[in-house]
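Treating backbone geometry as a discrete language has practical consequences that deserve illustration. In the encoding step, the backbone of a single protein was reduced to a row of integers, each denoting a local shape. The amino acid sequence and the backbone structure tokens for this protein are reproduced below.
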Amino acid sequence: MLLAPDWLAGHAIIIGYGSLEGTSMRDRYPHPSQQPLLPLTMVVSVVIGVLFLRIGGQYAKFGAGFAFAWFLVSFALYGLAWLLRDQAEWRESRRNANTIGAD
């Protein structure tokens, strides 16, 4: 059994040793791509961009451009989180397949 040093005892969850209760982080926290924050951010940025364009005014193009950039960044983060989640699931399935075959 791998034990963390005393100075790491408070940070055991962060570095992947699991919590002291025995449940893994995966059981307690959903993946970022499964949380509603990023899709909500994308929808809000589009709505704000459309509002800027509809209202018009001196800084409407700047505001709409900023909202579009905000949308692109949040979309890229969501896509990256989605890819990383799929890669982690694939790696987990490979690890389980190798463990079953080793028995």
Notes: Residues 33 and 89 are 13 Å apart (CA to CA).
